[in-house]
């Protein structure tokens, strides 16, 4: 027996893609979610271009021509940004990888007020991600932007 | 294929990338640290010299599929999380990603192997 | 902390505060809009109290959901100044702001009317993960003859996730739910873990149908916002990551789980004198 069901009219109230960028006063982890996406997407977009450029290594004339091409204007700086994105993505990826397998996480406990949040208990790992990224990117910057042009 | 299988490969590819992309970054962009002169690292002789070595053949043959899979699965996740993508569209997006990934894999593998054989 | 609250009460109690409420009547409004109300704060007044006061004294058409008024039923979760909260547990003074207090229905749910979110998909997601103990000995479940053994340690593995009141605050916080309307959501996934981690349960494989789907657990990328928003300390993001580990264990064949056995009633023991008899059994007669 099928009952007549009233379908209520509703209004969509999803945060949408904007919700990735800003959702409210949450911890930094929610914004690392977005940063991980943006950096991943940046490195992915670079990959096909990089493949096409580096496959010119099969002959010397083509290689020298394409190397001259990518050294123009802001392109080296763009490459540096991809490097920064890649380094952050890797270190944050290690944090996520360990978390997905349940390491770095607190164990379940009785929820007694004030409640603890396992995600916030590993804030040190977030800081470590930033420190490691800064160290590697700092050294990379020296080689990318200074050594490479002398 | 089950989502958990795809996701597990994504994580494995990520773990592999940490190593081989680490080698790639180390050689290309942090070369001074390892005693390689940065000025020559991109010269044709240096590049083709590396291409001929078995170590780099292995590194790049591992790096290429891992990077393509990790990246394209990540892109697929991102696209699938946008709700206006329906089921039929999803199937087509998966096919397009597999096709383009395979295309780049063949293209890149050709360049790596041809570079090794000189 | 107590001193802080006293100071805050001194600062705000008796003052008139402006509430900006999101209004939407599906039969006449094309889009939601904000409407302002001013009320005088009394001591200990929660945001829900304020909404009730507004409904009683200023606008009887204002719609919102509430039931228990003490953080048990999970009906009254709303976005208060941009953060999902149980309005019955949020005192107006603790918001500590002179600006108008903005109350909207929970984000990432369709609006039915004013501050009332449409929870149908949310509850369907919860249903899809089979939120009950599943065992191979179904006969024992249908016609129980006793209890199952469970140690306090085994209980603690899932107890935290059993505190969920299904208020929906976690979905309002989740960045994946912001775009993926079909995503199961932190609530259903944490509930799935609650049963998977239960020593009496054998239902992981059955739950995988929903959990391991294209809109399932692997759409979670661990933003942790759901746990921050949870008003009951359930910590859904923790449950989800632990469930991921369980699924991987299962997929590599390492999740051999023997369900908790039936407790045996000791026989042949003599009752000490003066101890009253237990009440009559309600099951297994």
Automatic annotation (TrEMBL), chain A:
GO molecular function: metal ion binding
Annotated protein name in UniProt: Succinate dehydrogenase, cytochrome b556 subunit
Membrane-spanning intervals of the chain: 35-53, 80-103, 124-142
Keyword Iron carried by entry: yes
GO cellular component terms attached to this protein's record: membrane
Record key words, sorted: Heme, Iron, Membrane, Metal-binding, Transmembrane, Transmembrane helix
Keyword presence, Iron: yes
Location in the cell: Membrane
Organism for this UniProt entry: Candidatus Glassbacteria bacterium RIFCSPLOWO2_12_FULL_58_11
Automatic annotation (TrEMBL), chain B:
GO cellular component terms attached to this protein's record: membrane
InterPro entries: SQR/QFR_C/D (IPR034804)
Record key words, sorted: Membrane, Transmembrane, Transmembrane helix
Domain of life, source organism: Bacteria
SUPFAM superfamilies: Fumarate reductase respiratory complex transmembrane subunits (SSF81343)
TM segment ranges: 54-75, 96-117
Listed name of the protein: Succinate dehydrogenase
Automatic annotation (TrEMBL), chain C:
MF-aspect GO terms: 2 iron, 2 sulfur cluster binding; 3 iron, 4 sulfur cluster binding; 4 iron, 4 sulfur cluster binding; electron transfer activity; metal ion binding; succinate dehydrogenase (quinone) activity
UniProt-listed Enzyme Commission number(s): 1.3.5.1
Cofactor list: [3Fe-4S] cluster; [4Fe-4S] cluster; [2Fe-2S] cluster
Region Disordered: start-end pairs: 263-285
Pathway where it operates: Carbohydrate metabolism; tricarboxylic acid cycle
Domain 4Fe-4S ferredoxin-type residues, every copy: 155-184
Family assignment from sequence similarity: Belongs to the succinate dehydrogenase/fumarate reductase iron-sulfur protein family.
Protein name: Fumarate reductase iron-sulfur subunit
Source species: Candidatus Glassbacteria bacterium RIFCSPLOWO2_12_FULL_58_11
């Amino acid at each position: 027996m099928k009952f007549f069901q009233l379908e209520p009219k509703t209004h969509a109230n999803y945060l949408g893609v904007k919700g990735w960028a800003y959702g409210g006063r949450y911890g930094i982890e929610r914004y690392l979610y977005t940063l991980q996406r943006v950096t991943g997407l940046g490195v992915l977009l670079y990959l096909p271009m990089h493949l096409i450029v580096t496959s010119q290594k099969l002959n010397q004339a083509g290689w020298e021509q394409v190397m001259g091409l990518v050294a123009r204007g802001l392109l080296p700086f763009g490459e540096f940004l991809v490097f920064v994105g890649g380094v952050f993505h890797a270190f944050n990826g290690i944090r996520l990888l360990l978390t997905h397998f349940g390491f770095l996480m607190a164990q379940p406990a009785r929820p007694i007020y004030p409640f603890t949040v396992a995600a916030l208990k590993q804030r040190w790992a977030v800081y470590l991600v930033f420190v490691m990224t800064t160290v590697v990117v700092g050294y990379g910057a020296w080689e990318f932007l200074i050594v490479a042009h002398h | 294929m089950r989502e958990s299988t795809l996701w597990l490969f994504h994580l494995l590819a990520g773990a592999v990338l940490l190593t081989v992309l680490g080698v790639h970054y180390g050689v290309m962009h942090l070369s001074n640290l390892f005693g390689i002169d940065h000025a020559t690292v991109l010269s044709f002789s240096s590049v083709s010299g590396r291409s001929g070595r078995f170590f780099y053949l292995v590194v790049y043959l591992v790096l290429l599929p891992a990077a393509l899979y990790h990246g394209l699965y990540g892109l697929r996740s991102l696209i699938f999380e946008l709700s206006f993508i329906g089921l039929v569209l999803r199937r087509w997006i998966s096919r397009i990603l597999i096709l383009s990934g395979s295309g780049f894999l063949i293209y890149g593998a050709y360049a790596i192997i041809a570079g090794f054989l000189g | 902390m107590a001193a802080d609250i006293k100071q805050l009460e001194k600062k705000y109690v008796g003052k008139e505060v402006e509430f900006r409420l999101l209004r939407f009547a599906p039969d006449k409004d094309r889009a939601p809009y904000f409407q302002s109300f001013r009320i005088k704060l009394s001591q200990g007044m929660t945001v829900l109290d304020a909404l009730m006061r507004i409904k009683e004294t200023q606008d009887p058409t204002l719609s919102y959901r509430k039931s228990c008024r003490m953080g048990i039923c999970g009906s009254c979760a709303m976005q208060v100044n941009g953060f999902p909260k149980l309005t019955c547990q949020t005192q107006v003074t603790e918001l500590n702001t002179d600006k108008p207090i903005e109350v909207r229905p929970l984000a990432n749910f369709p609006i039915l009317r004013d501050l009332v979110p449409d929870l149908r998909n949310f509850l369907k997601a919860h249903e899809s993960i089979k939120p009950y103990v599943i065992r191979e000995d179904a006969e024992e479940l249908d016609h129980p003859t006793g209890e199952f053994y469970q140690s306090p340690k085994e209980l603690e593995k899932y107890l935290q996730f059993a505190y969920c009141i299904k208020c929906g605050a976690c979905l309002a916080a989740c960045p994946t739910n912001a775009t993926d309307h079909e995503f199961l959501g932190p609530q259903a996934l944490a509930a799935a873990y609650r049963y998977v981690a239960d020593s009496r349960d054998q239902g992981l494989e059955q739950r995988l149908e929903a959990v391991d789907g294209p809109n399932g657990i692997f759409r979670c990328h661990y933003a942790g916002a759901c746990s921050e928003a949870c008003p009951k300390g359930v910590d859904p993001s923790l449950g989800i990551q632990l469930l991921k580990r369980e699924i991987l264990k299962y997929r590599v064949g390492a999740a051999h789980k023997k369900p908790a056995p039936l407790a045996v009633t000791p026989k042949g023991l003599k009752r000490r004198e003066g101890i009253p008899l237990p009440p009559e059994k309600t099951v297994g007669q």
